[in-house]
Amino acid sequence: MTLSHSPSGSAGRRPRGAARQSRAGIAFVAAYVLLLIAFGILPTGYAVYFAFTDAGGTFTGFSNFVNTARDFRFMDAVGHVALYLLFWLVSLVVFVVALALLLHRLASGTMSKSLRFLFYIPGALAGAASVLVWLFMLDPTVSPVSSLLGMLGFHTFGEVIAPGNLPLLFTIIAFWTGAGGWIVVIYGALNNIPTDVMEAARIDGAGAWQTAWHIQIPMLRKWIVYMVILAFAGGAQLFVEPQLLSLASVGVAGRDYSLNQLTYDFAFQMNNINGAAAVSVELLVVSVSAAAVFVARSGFFDAD
Amino acid sequence: MTVNKPSSNPKRALSKKRAALLAGCAATVLLTVTACGGGSTAGTTTKDGFAQAPQKDGALTVWVDATRMEAAKLYQQLHPEVKLDIVSYDGNANGSNYLQTKVQLFNRTNKGWPDVVFSSQNNEASWAVDAGFAAPLNKGLIPESTLGQFAKGANDVCTVDGTVYCLRNDLSQAVLWYNAPLLKKFGYQVPATWEEYQKLGEKVAKKHPGYLVGDAGDSFTPEIYLWASKCGANDITGPKAVSVNTTSEACTKMAKLLDVLIKNKSMSISGVFSTDFGKNKADKILLMPGPAWFGGAVFKDTLKTPAGQIAAAPIPQWQGDNAPSTGNVGGGTWLLSKHSTHLKAATDFLKWVTTDNAYQGEKGPGFPAYAPAAETWLKGQDASGYFASDLSALSAASSQVWPGWGSGKFSQEAIWAATVKPGLTQGKSIVSMLPAWQDSIVKHAESNGYKVSQ
Fold it and tell me: B190 by DSSP, 3-state: which?
């Protein structure tokens, strides 16, 4: 997926350059396709096979799907993931775009550079490590911001991780770890908006708000859609945050919270790999459908 | 900065999240392929009650948690001729199910099982037998004379249909721990009945606010209090059958007692291992009902209570109860793999680690399940001078664990933690949550394939 399409080379040199380019292109794509098959398509096919068979390999139709959906934790997990996705996607779109626009207005200079760096730092931590950072932040006994937690009325870890707070907590953690990378991407996309367009807007008397609302955001549409698709797929697979929280709280919060945790339980604690595969296929179908809707509605693949 | 470059970052972020899933799936593919290639059961001989793999030379693989690492190292030191491969893992602490997860994968690859493994949970037999992992021990591997010397009922959690599938490492019978000098200073007596215990708690709340007569904030709280009160929340009546009744008189009267003491704050709801407890309540303990291992693991190692303070008394009884009864919190088990190709060495290790005085009697951190080792252990504890009393209460309690609370495949601790603990934090009473607790136990039991009677 590329958005930058600055024509390379003049028309005269095109044939040789294009040939070399296409050979290089094939080589790059081939490596990717190999990995995609080995670690994407084959395992997916294998999961689909598992989802429709039993432990002995006999075709069972939809019974794995029905049985797992009847599990008493299933609907709860669906609700949890849905709520989390809502919080996570809304906060991602609103804050990432706002922060990227702000960053862009600051123009270049040290301020902008250091802010970009600052935004990106949390993303450099591996997923599990960043969750551990938050487990410390959220425990009033050891937190560096315990006075802030105290002002909000939280005095013990147990109060912080009350069930009602979880979607918000997971959103904050996910935003902290994931948003920085997106801010940098959207900032890059903003830089790609031709200067003559921006200049025209300025000459026409558009202020910062009007420029953002009528010029920049519409031109960022594809990037926002791209972000939402990937964030949706990632968010639907919520696992690390609740799993670590459940370990840290000795099972008080976060156990069997998300669908992915449920598949883990099915596979390894209830010895029901086929049921686990069924749930994972459902996740795949939901994510792919959501992506399809977004792509279709946004004209994602339309040439500019 | 071009637009292309940074876009590799979000992709990486995605692939990072997805990687876990994909890698898992891919690994399963590869593993299954190997399993299909290498899966042969030829050459087994049936002996000691199961089909044994052809025996080979080679290192004995032993999995232990950090605490039991000492045992494995001591064995190596005393038996330098044995080739030992010691692997450290989390010991399934807090029901992490690591061992079960791994065994499921090894069953697919048909190799990789450890020969002997320690688990800090005592419900391993409930899945390890079905998974074809645990070897029967009382069919020839371990002599009856050895098995007979374990404390009464110690290996019940390892027994399925009369066959013993694991050996108990230590017992975790609950007793009443107390701070002897502090109790004397305040002028209180050690309560013998739950009624006296409650009165004492009410007195402490008034006269010595801040001091504690117990803690009800751990996931094993029901195993200390409700088990001792003979609450029938977890009566495993058959290999796949459980009887659950959390609203009987035995349950509600204990729940009411806890509610009173939680409300007047003489009982904490933080949990003894929480950061809050360690920081704010460690020096406020007057009484503390808890399992045998509280002595070492909680008072000595976690809370750093100085020597000469902590003593143990029998857990209180309800007035009118004629037979003493107590609960039990965990107590590790050792399993031997059916797939072992070094059965002789594995059996020797297992026998040594569970019964030999060199480890269990002299070095064991908990109360040994093997009675002769327990005697040596008690003498050692007395000699160490850490405790303010002898620990005879522990040996008396070792045979008083109420047998009506079993070890199913589902974790009672996990259920309590997720169902009751959040409510406690919000100020709900335990009595009001008993029906929800029952509901949750029933659902978990059923989803694990248990037939539930209520």
Answer: coil
The predicted model scores a pTM of: 0.81
A11: in domain: no
**Residue-range definition of the domain harbouring residue A205:** 72-298
Is residue B430 in a domain? yes
Give chain B positions within 8 Å (CB) of A260.
21
Instruction: Give the chain A residue nearest B276 (alpha carbons).
Output: A141
Structural domain contains residue B289: yes
- A6 in a structural domain: no
> B35 lies in a domain?
no
User: Where in the sequence is the domain holding B344, given as residue range(s)?
Assistant: 53-171+330-380
Q: How many domains does chain A have?
A: 1
Categorize the per-residue pLDDT at A304 as very low, low, confident or very high, splitting at 50, 70 and 90. low
CA distance B321 to chain A (A): 34
Residues 227-286 of chain A whose Cβ lies under 8 A from any Cβ of chain B: 227, 230, 233-234, 237, 239-240, 247, 249-253, 255-256, 260, 267-271, 273, 280
Test B22 with A181 for CB contact under 8 angstroms: no
Cα A10 from Cα B422, distance rounded (Å): 68
Residue to mutate among B7, B106, B124, B130, with most A CBs inside 10 A, is B7
Cβ-contact B104, A268 below 8 angstroms:
yes
Q: How confident is the model at residue B42 (pLDDT cuts 50, 70, 90)?
A: low
Residue B35 has pLDDT above 60, yes or no: no
Residue B76: give its domain's CATH number: 3.40.190.10
Contacts of A198 by beta carbon, 8 Å cutoff, 6+ apart: A211, A215
Axis-axis angle for helices A259-268, A240-248 (nearest 10): 70
Are B93 and B178 in a shared domain?
no
Q: Give the ipTM of the model, two decimals please.
A: 0.77
Q: Of B365, B296, B300, B329, whose CA–CA distance to B219 is shortest?
A: B329
Same domain, B151 and B219: no
Residue B26: which of A38, A141, A252 has the nearest Cβ? A38
Instruction: Please state, as a whole number, how many other Cβ atoms lie within 10 Å of the Cβ of residue B406.
Output: 18
